């Protein structure tokens, strides 16, 4: 079984062959930290977390290096800091902490490296200096610009030509640009904005060159996989390749992997459109694992139409899987690898809909199996789920998930009292308690050895 990935550059699936299987490298463009992340921002995080897990399974945990950057230099960060009258790192640290907590709730493993633009200034300045020396960049009116005509492959990733870009260019193109597609590597800061000293004057880097320098420093170039949302193909990734190759990193990235958009109706979910649902709010309403499931239930390259029903379907799907595990709670799971069908699905360009169908198939088999077969099937279900970041909770804890400890204690006490009332044949009291539990949205499942409970889905 080989992993195959859809490579945007090749416009097709290719077998994944790392340059060095002992040191597999992946970089994904991360968030700009000035606000809460929305569930669209979480899509690449969860998709590339899954790819990270698959790579670790294939090559071993110690042999996969994953860097996801943090953009902490940005106009929107400056604006927010000015608004609150604080330094930019007060803003970026606040939202980065929230981001870490929210993404952990979605089961995303911490990346191996999380470079930050403000901590990579020397490398950024180094890349720009090399580009100037190799005549791929020029200085004009206090700016340093990348000369797109210096790179003959410019436009190859996105399928555009420089001629198209002239035709599409608007009148507001800065007059000091040699070509409308030329982009900023360094620019002067406005008065009062953060600035860094450089041989090209005091100022700040452009966004594209930050990523190239962060990859160079965190992982070394070229890398195996470069990822991000579909919206980053042009101009961001196109520009990264141009700079990287001209700064002496032939190849730059061997595979370009892009996730599709998460949409609200016909529009992409985005802060600028104001149609966002924040992860921070969603994790208060839904188990993080259900949100992870919701993000992975569609194939990562397809658009994902978001809505409350997507989260509730995901919650029900996990109820089914945890239900089977709960019914098998007395079965000791065998130490088993993930199932071949699950691996085949994930190795086929992360075919998560097929991988999830396999989890359901294993859950059905677990219910139907003879006692002799159940340990192996339970082991395979747990290992298959865990590979994709699912089913690691205790099934009882899953069903009690939304209840806080005080509520859990109260429910447990009511259930114990109800059992006592029933065995004393005090039916009115037993009925009263059942009504009380119903009012708390608790569903009680009576069984031979007592009763279990779960909170009903909240609409
Ligand atoms: P941003 O903070 O806007 O720079 O975005 C961070 C990451 O989220 C990038 O990889 C974007 O491509 C991705 N992203 C932003 N909005 C969406 C969306 N609606 N659907 C999927 N990915 C998105
Ligand atoms: Zn980037």
State the main characteristics.
single chain, 459 residues, Rossmann fold, Four Helix Bundle (Hemerythrin (Met), subunit A), 4-stranded parallel β-sheet, 4-stranded antiparallel β-sheet, binds adenosine monophosphate, binds zinc ion
Number of helices: 16
Q: Name the assembly state.
A: single chain
| Distinct ligands | adenosine monophosphate, zinc ion
Helix content: 40-55%
Corresponding CATH architecture of the domain at 18-116 and 260-307: 3-Layer(aba) Sandwich
| Spatial ordering of strands, largest sheet | 4-3-9-10
Shape: elongated
Which structural class should the secondary elements be placed in?
Answer: alpha/beta
Largest sheet: 4 strands, parallel
Nearest-integer average pLDDT? 94
Are there runs of 5+ residues with pLDDT below 50, and where? none
């Amino acid at each position: 079984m080989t992993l195959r990935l859809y490579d945007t550059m090749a416009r097709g699936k290719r077998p994944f062959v790392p340059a060095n299987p002992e040191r597999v490298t992946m970089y994904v463009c991360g968030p700009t930290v000035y606000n809460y992340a929305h569930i669209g921002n979480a899509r690449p995080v969860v998709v590339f977390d899954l790819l990270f897990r698959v790579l670790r399974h294939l090559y071993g945990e110690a042999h996969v290096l994953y860097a996801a950057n943090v953009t902490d230099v940005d106009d929107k960060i400056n604006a927010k800091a000015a608004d609150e009258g604080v330094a930019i790192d007060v803003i970026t640290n606040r939202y980065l902490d929230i981001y870490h907590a929210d993404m952990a709730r979605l089961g995303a493993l911490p990346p191996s490296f999380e470079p930050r633009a403000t901590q990579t200034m020397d490398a950024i300045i180094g890349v720009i200096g090399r580009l100037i020396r190799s005549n791929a960049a020029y200085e004009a009116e206090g700016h340093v610009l990348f000369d797109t005509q210096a790179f003959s492959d410019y436009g190859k990733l996105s399928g555009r030509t420089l001629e198209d870009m002239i035709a599409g260019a608007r009148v507001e193109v800065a007059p000091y640009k040699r070509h409308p597609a030329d982009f900023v590597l360094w620019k002067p800061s406005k008065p009062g904005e953060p600035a860094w000293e450089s041989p090209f004057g005091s100022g700040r880097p452009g966004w594209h060159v930050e990523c190239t320098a962060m990859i160079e420093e965190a992982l070394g170039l070229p890398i195996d996989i470069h990822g991000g949302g579909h919206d980053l193909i042009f101009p961001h990734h196109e520009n990264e390749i141009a700079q990287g190759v001209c700064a002496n990193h032939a190849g730059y990235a061997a595979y370009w992997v892009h996730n599709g958009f998460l949409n609200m109706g016909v529009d992409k979910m985005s802060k600028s459109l104001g149609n966002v649902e924040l992860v921070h709010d969603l994790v208060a309403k839904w188990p993080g694992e259900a949100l992870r499931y919701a993000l992975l239930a569609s194939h990562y390259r397809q658009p994902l139409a978001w809505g409350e029903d997507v989260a509730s379907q995901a919650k029900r799907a996990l109820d089914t899987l945890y239900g089977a595990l709960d019914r098998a709670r007395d079965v000791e799971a065998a130490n088993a690898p993930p199932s071949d069908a699950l691996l085949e699905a994930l190795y086929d360009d992360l075919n998560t809909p097929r991988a999830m169908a396999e989890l359901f198939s294993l859950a059905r088999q677990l219910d139907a199996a003879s006692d002799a077969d159940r340990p192996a099937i339970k082991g395979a279900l747990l290992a298959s789920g865990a590979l994709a970041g699912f089913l690691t909770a205790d099934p009882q804890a899953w069903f009690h998930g939304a209840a806080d400890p005080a509520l859990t204690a109260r429910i447990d006490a009511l259930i114990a009292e109800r059992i006592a009332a029933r065995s004393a044949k005090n039916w009115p009291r037993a009925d009263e308690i059942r009504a009380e539990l119903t009012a708390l949205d608790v569903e009680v499942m009576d069984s031979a050895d007592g009763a279990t409970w779960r909170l009903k889905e909240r609409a």
